[in-house]
């Protein structure tokens, strides 16, 4: 019996875009992603195809050459990529880093970069926030940018700057006023748009970090990097607010990827459980196998409601820190639970590379750590939503 496919929301958003992404992803099957994973190679063909189809420019306004779609369209694109068995991490950052430039950059900066990004000639894939000593405490970053005439001189080190080797531009957070001289804790940091093409080997050194997933992540060393004042995005010392704004979009998009992962795991698990027969009946007829899959399905669908709500609030310009954080928390946990259930359903075969389950299992685990770890979301909810004392 052909299984029905109830693995979409009842009324999926952006059905035509979803179909287009599904068609594109069908050209890049599991074997494509497995090969890239094995070699830790950048999925260039996938990124090129997504760029050529215009999906990576979906959030760029039409005035700058994009399609001017709202966040829910970008979420639908990334969800479909993950639901097809692929992974959007090779390029998803362009969707949310671009927002910082769009909302806080000058008109000159927007005109200089956004049309090129929309045409796919320029890549803005790198987001340099994390540092080795600061960890989740972003306000403690040590990279400094000191004004010197018409330039800023930047000194420091970033870690986990994903895709830096595959990006022309990097959005960088650096301290412009020392921590003990700011009136508010969140002030004193600034955002810069660094043109990596001009600076690699001249103030910027990139070192890849090999990880348990194929993520093209790196360390970036900034040594007397001299950039013009025109590289500053928005006003000096206000950069933390600018990146927080982009981080809500990031949380929603990552959560949508988790929903895609969760739906992929549930689909794989239900198909396998319906086919695989041991002890004379399909394993899916055994409650010990069927019920965890049904539970994983319910959890993914529930998380998706929060993702949709967060995207809507972002699109309407309403405060969305609470919903964006909850969407990321619930979706990443639902995806992980679905992944664990899927692996268990496949038994030994779940560990074999050919089924893609072990790859997706590794990939979806990241989202409880990055871009923000689960504990930090819980701390945010505890303090800022529930009004409890600040967690230390
Ligand atoms: C593959 C990958 C790609 C990444 N890509 C990027 C990128 O492109 N750009 C970028 O800037 N960063 C990136 N990151 C960094 C990512 O955002 C950080 O790893 C994440 O924010 C956690 O920081 P940390 O690793 O320093 O962990 P830490 O802050 O050291 O935390 C370690 C553990 O302690 C817990 N913890 C810390 N503080 C508290 C607290 N106050 N209360 C309770 N628990 C706490 C955390 O939850 C975590 O489990 C990436 C990371 C990875 C692994």
TrEMBL record:
<keyword id="KW-0285">Flavoprotein</keyword>
<protein>
    <submittedName>
        <fullName>Acyl-CoA dehydrogenase</fullName>
    </submittedName>
</protein>
<dbReference type="Pfam" id="PF00441">
    <property type="entry name" value="Acyl-CoA_dh_1"/>
</dbReference>
<dbReference type="Pfam" id="PF02770">
    <property type="entry name" value="Acyl-CoA_dh_M"/>
</dbReference>
<dbReference type="InterPro" id="IPR009075">
    <property type="entry name" value="AcylCo_DH/oxidase_C"/>
</dbReference>
<keyword id="KW-0274">FAD</keyword>
<dbReference type="Pfam" id="PF02771">
    <property type="entry name" value="Acyl-CoA_dh_N"/>
</dbReference>
<dbReference type="InterPro" id="IPR009100">
    <property type="entry name" value="AcylCoA_DH/oxidase_NM_dom_sf"/>
</dbReference>
<dbReference type="InterPro" id="IPR050741">
    <property type="entry name" value="Acyl-CoA_dehydrogenase"/>
</dbReference>
<dbReference type="InterPro" id="IPR006089">
    <property type="entry name" value="Acyl-CoA_DH_CS"/>
</dbReference>
<dbReference type="InterPro" id="IPR036250">
    <property type="entry name" value="AcylCo_DH-like_C"/>
</dbReference>
<feature type="domain" description="Acyl-CoA dehydrogenase/oxidase N-terminal">
    <location>
        <begin position="16"/>
        <end position="121"/>
    </location>
</feature>
<dbReference type="InterPro" id="IPR006091">
    <property type="entry name" value="Acyl-CoA_Oxase/DH_mid-dom"/>
</dbReference>
<dbReference type="InterPro" id="IPR046373">
    <property type="entry name" value="Acyl-CoA_Oxase/DH_mid-dom_sf"/>
</dbReference>
<feature type="domain" description="Acyl-CoA oxidase/dehydrogenase middle">
    <location>
        <begin position="126"/>
        <end position="224"/>
    </location>
</feature>
<dbReference type="InterPro" id="IPR037069">
    <property type="entry name" value="AcylCoA_DH/ox_N_sf"/>
</dbReference>
<keyword id="KW-0560">Oxidoreductase</keyword>
<dbReference type="InterPro" id="IPR013786">
    <property type="entry name" value="AcylCoA_DH/ox_N"/>
</dbReference>
<feature type="domain" description="Acyl-CoA dehydrogenase/oxidase C-terminal">
    <location>
        <begin position="237"/>
        <end position="369"/>
    </location>
</feature>
<comment type="similarity">
    <text>Belongs to the acyl-CoA dehydrogenase family.</text>
</comment>
């Amino acid at each position: 019996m052909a299984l029905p496919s109830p693995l979409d929301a009842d009324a999926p958003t952006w059905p035509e875009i979803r179909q287009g992404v599904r068609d594109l992803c069908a050209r890049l099957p599991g074997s494509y992603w497995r090969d890239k994973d094995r070699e830790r190679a950048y999925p260039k063909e996938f990124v090129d195809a997504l760029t050529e189809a215009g999906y990576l420019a979906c959030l760029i306004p039409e005035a700058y050459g994009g399609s001017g779609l709202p966040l829910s369209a970008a979420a639908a694109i990334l969800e479909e990529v993950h639901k097809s068995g692929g992974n959007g991490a090779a390029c998803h950052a362009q969707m949310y880093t671009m927002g910082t430039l769009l909302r806080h950059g000058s008109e000159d900066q927007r005109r200089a970069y956004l049309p090129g990004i929309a045409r796919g000639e320029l890549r803005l894939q790198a987001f340099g926030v994390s540092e080795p000593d600061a960890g989740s405490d972003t306000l403690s970053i040590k990279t400094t940018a000191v004004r010197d005439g018409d330039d800023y001189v930047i000194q420091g080190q970033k870690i986990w700057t994903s895709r830096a080797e595959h990006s022309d531009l990097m959005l960088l957070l650096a301290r412009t006023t020392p921590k003990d001289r700011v009136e508010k804790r969140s002030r004193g940091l600034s955002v810069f748009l660094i043109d990596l093409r001009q600076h690699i080997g001249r103030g910027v050194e990139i070192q890849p970090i090999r990880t348990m997933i194929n993520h093209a992540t790196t360390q970036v060393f900034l040594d007397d990097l001299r950039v013009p004042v025109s590289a500053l995005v928005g006003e000096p010392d206000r950069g933390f607010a600018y990146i927080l704004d982009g981080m809500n979009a990031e949380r929603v998009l990552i959560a949508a990827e988790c929903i895609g992962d969760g739906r992929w795991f549930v689909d794989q698990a239900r198909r396998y459980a319906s086919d695989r027969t041991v002890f004379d009946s399909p394993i899916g007829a055994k409650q010990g196998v069927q019920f965890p899959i049904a539970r994983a399905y319910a959890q993914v669908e529930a998380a998706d409601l929060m993702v949709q709500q967060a995207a809507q609030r972002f699109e309407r310009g309403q405060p969305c820190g609470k919903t964006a954080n909850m969407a990321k928390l619930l979706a990443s946990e639902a995806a992980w639970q679905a992944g664990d259930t899927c692996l268990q359903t496949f038994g030994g075969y779940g560990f074999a590379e050919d089924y893609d389950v072990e790859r997706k299992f590794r990939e979806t685990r990241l989202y409880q750590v990055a871009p923000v770890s689960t504990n930090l979301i819980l701390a945010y909810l505890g303090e800022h939503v529930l009004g409890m004392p600040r967690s230390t």
